[in-house]
Each structure stands twice: as C-alpha cells, then as structure tokens.
Task: inverse folding
C-alpha cells in the first residue's frame, strides 16, 4: 500500500487524535508515557486541536481527579461474545490547559497493573482503540490524523479501513503509527479475531500469521498505517535489519519510504535541575554546588559512604534484557574492588536482575545501593546526584534518561545503539568536544574499557568540567522535535 504524500496544505490547525496505553503522570511504565503527554501538550501549544485517549486504570482513578463527560456515558461495544460498556471522563494534564480523555470500563481496566497477563489483554486495548474512534463519531469530530502508539493501539489503521470505513467522518483521516519499542508486538491467538471485531475482515490480516494461528497487532499496524515513525533516526535504520527487526524487518523494508525516525524530545519543564522540586537542592551549569549537595544527601539517605572524590554512577531503568544488565556481573565486582566509586540503581522488572543488584548491594554495602520499584522522585534525585549515568542497552529505541542525564550534568555512558547513538556524542580529548562515552560491542570487555576511560577522565577535573558543561548545554526540547511530527501530519493530510 504505497502512500503518496499530498503537497503541503495550508497551515490550518490539524485535528489530531492520539491514542496511547500510557500517559504521564496518569500511568507510566516507560518512555511511551512521557512522549504521549508531551506530544499532546506541544501540539496544543501550537494551536492544533488534539484529543488524547487512554484507559482509566485503577491507580489512575485512585490518584487523580476526574470529570465525567455526561453525554459520553455507558456506550455499548460488542467484542465477540460480550458487550462492554464504556464511559468517558477527563482530567487536566498538569502544567497545561489540555484535558486527557479517559476511557472508563471497570471490567477491563480496574486492575492492579497497567498491563496484565490476563486472557482479555487484547480486548483491553482493542476497546481503547475503538472507543477513541467511537467518541469521534459521537461528537462528530473528524480527525485529520489518528496517531497510534505501539502494539496496543496498532489496530487503529485497520479499524479505520474496515469497521469504520463506512463513516464519511473518517474519509480524510490519515494514520500514523509510532513504534516506541519493536520488542513488544502484541501477538495473540488467531481465535481472538472475533473479540477484536475483525472476524469478517480476515482478508486484511497477514495471511501467513493467520495460517500459523496468530495475529500480530504491531505487524498489522505496520501494514496499514499511512506513515510509520519510530523514536530515533538510528533505530529507524536498525529495525529494518536482521539484528533489531524482531522478525518485522522485511515488512519494514517494504515500507521504508514511509518510515521516519523522529528523536523524542525532553520535557524540560519537568526535567530541569534549575527548578526541579523533586531534588533537595537546585543548580545550574554555572554553579554546580547544588549538584554536589544532592549527591551527598542521596548517599546519606541510601546509607552509602559519601566522598566527593568518588564518582557516583546512577542507573534508573526497567530491569529487562533490553537494558543490557547482563554485561555487569563480569565487570562490576572487579571495578568496585579496584576503584573508589559509588553505584546507585533504581529499577523494577525481572526478578533475576533485582536479585543481582540486591546481591551486589549486599556485597558492597558502602559503595552500592539498590532500590527496587518505580519511584519518579527518586529517579529525579539520582539524575541530579550522579556524576555518570549508565545505559548499556542491548537496543534502545530512543532512551530518555541519557537526555535527562545530560541536562543534570550526569555524564552518560551508553552503548552506541538507537537513540543513544543519536543523542550522546563521544568525548574527544583533542578538541574538548563531546558529551559522553559510547561503546560498540555488546560485551563486558567493551563496557569495561569504556568505564575505565570515564573513571580516568574523572580524575582530570578540568576536562570533566568541560564534558559536563557540554552535556548541560544540549537542547533536546520538544519545541524542536514537535515540528517534525507536524510536518509529517501536514504531508499526509489530503488537500482540501
Ligand atoms: P523505556 O521506555 O525503554 O523504559 P526510556 O529511557 O525511554 O526507556 O524511558 C524511561 C522513563 O521511565 C524515564 O522517564 C525514566 O526516568 C523512567 N523510569 C524507568 N524506570 C523507572 C523507575 N524504576 N522508577 C522511576 N522512573 C523510572
């Protein structure tokens, strides 16, 4: 399905319907939440007419004040054997006049986590996608763009071509699918077709998959979205190759002309050491004393020995294989024995990594602290307190923490992959340019060499200062990045 871009239309405000399973601060497990919120906020700032839909999860309901929309209550939706009823409530996105639209369906979303292993996980997100379209219908709001994010909402382009194709409201609607992480594809058994409302539309699905008994949400989205984006230029290339394509590389290569890499922006309203309310002392690139105070306070809070001369390495991450932590056991104990450094890790995820970091903290109680769980305030504090920030990712679609680290004067030590490659420039001693340290091979030796280089430079106070200042001067704000999305939308929309 080749997409022809229409010539630029007039700069009319666009109607953009964003649909996402996570939106910060209402529900977040990773970068998707930050990006959805920022897209909405910045599109609206540029005077576009935006609606952002997400599920009303149990925790969101508990922690945020919501206003029901009286005319959008108890709307029936049939999903296979069952009929579900959903209602819409809204809540204001902090620091913005923007209101998020919540799809309330307690039967599906009133559960402990955002994601589940439950049998109806596919229905939870199919309903979200369809509810967004049905609310457009109920309110007679014709979106120029429907923007889906990751596998959860990747059926939207297909829904618009099938179940909702009869409605002229969507005649001019174009679709964008952003792949935030190709590692999660939403693969379900083919007998779920009925639940998805797609039983009569089998011919639109990827036949080979159907024959093998499965449906792949993300793959379907890649097939039908008018345009695909992913969250960095390097990742856009990588996912077309065998190493990172996770089985979708062939399809992505077929759609290469419609696949764009747009690096995520940073919300400097939230991540800014000059005014961050979540850190004990604020600071700027001109005066870093507050940063040192944050470091001391964090060491004291976590019970590890503070020493201004010992660099503190920070890690804030989901604990999954993607993040590359299996490189650590071979090298960290050696480094911790040899060098006077501190390590603070905040992460939640797989037990094997939690066990490892717990063990490490037990083995080096004065040098290593580990906190399991999701803790936004502590994440901010670690950024502010650390001298170096470690991201040895196996793959990294964009990565936000390295950009936060740059702004907080915490030097990123990262693998040269995906967005890490696009946003961290290697330190060059000869020119004094660069913002961090990068390594290529996914091996403990490569990481070890890079960590040693960083620890060596740490001892050169002048050079280190320069490196920190270079990083703090970087600007990855959404003000820059949002323009690329708007331009893409405008190219997709047919001329009036
Ligand atoms: P990913 O989306 O793959 O998890 P990103 O670097 O793009 O990685 O985004 C991670 C986001 O989630 C950042 O805002 C980071 O601060 C936050 N984060 C990750 N793990 C935790 C945690 N355990 N506690 C608090 N924040 C976390």
Result:
């Amino acid at each position: 399905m080749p997409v022809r871009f229409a010539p630029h239309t007039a700069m009319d405000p666009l109607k953009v319907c964003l649909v996402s399973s996570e939106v910060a601060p209402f529900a977040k497990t990773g970068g998707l939440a930050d990006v959805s919120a920022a897209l909405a906020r910045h599109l609206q700032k540029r005077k576009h007419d935006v609606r952002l839909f997400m599920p009303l999860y149990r925790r969101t309901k508990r922690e945020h004040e919501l206003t029901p929309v009286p005319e959008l209550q108890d709307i029936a939706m049939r999903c296979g054997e069952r009929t579900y009823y959903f209602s819409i409530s809204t809540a204001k996105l902090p620091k913005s006049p923007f209101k998020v639209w919540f799809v309330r369906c307690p039967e599906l979303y009133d559960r402990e986590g955002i994601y589940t292993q439950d049998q109806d996980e596919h229905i939870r997100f199919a309903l979200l996608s369809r509810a967004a379209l049905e609310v457009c219908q109920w309110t007679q709001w014709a979106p120029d763009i429907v923007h889906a994010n990751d596998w959860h909402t990747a059926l939207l382009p297909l829904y618009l071509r099938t179940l909702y194709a009869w409605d002229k409201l969507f005649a001019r609607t174009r679709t964008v699918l952003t792949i935030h992480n190709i590692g999660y594809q939403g693969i379900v058994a083919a007998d779920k077709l009925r639940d998805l409302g797609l039983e009569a539309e089998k011919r639109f699905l990827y036949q080979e998959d159907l024959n093998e008994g499965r449906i792949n949400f993300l793959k379907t989205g890649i097939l039908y979205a008018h345009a695909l984006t992913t969250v960095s230029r390097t990742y856009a290339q990588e996912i077309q190759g065998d190493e990172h394509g996770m089985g979708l590389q062939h399809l992505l290569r077929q759609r290469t002309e419609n696949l764009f890499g747009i690096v995520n922006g940073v919300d400097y309203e939230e991540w800014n050491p000059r005014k961050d309310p979540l850190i004990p002392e604020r600071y700027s690139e001109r005066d870093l004393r507050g940063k040192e105070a944050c470091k001391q306070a964090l060491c004291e809070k976590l019970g590890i020995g503070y020493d201004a001369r010992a660099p503190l390495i920070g890690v804030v991450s989901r604990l999954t294989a993607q993040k590359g932590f299996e490189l650590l056991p071979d090298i960290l104990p050696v480094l911790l024995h040899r060098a006077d450094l501190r390590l603070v890790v905040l992460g939640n995820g797989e037990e094997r990594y939690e066990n490892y970091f717990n063990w490490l903290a037990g083995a080096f109680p004065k040098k290593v602290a580990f906190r399991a769980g999701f803790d936004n305030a502590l994440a901010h504090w670690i950024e502010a307190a650390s001298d170096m920030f470690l991201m040895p990712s196996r793959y990294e679609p964009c990565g936000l923490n390295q950009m936060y680290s740059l702004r907080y004067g915490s030097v990123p030590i990262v693998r040269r992959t995906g967005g890490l490659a696009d946003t961290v420039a290697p330190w060059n001693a000869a020119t004094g340019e660069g913002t961090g340290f990068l390594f290529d091979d996914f091996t403990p030796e490569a990481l070890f060499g890079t960590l040693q280089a960083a620890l060596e430079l740490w001892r050169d106070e002048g050079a280190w200062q320069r490196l920190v200042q270079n990083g703090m001067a970087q600007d990855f704000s959404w003000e820059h990045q949002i323009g690329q999305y708007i331009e893409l939308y405008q190219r997709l929309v047919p001329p009036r």
Remarks:
- Residues 1-10 have pLDDT under 50 and may be disordered.
- The chain has two domains: 15-265+479-492, 289-476.
- The first helix runs from residue 31 to 45.
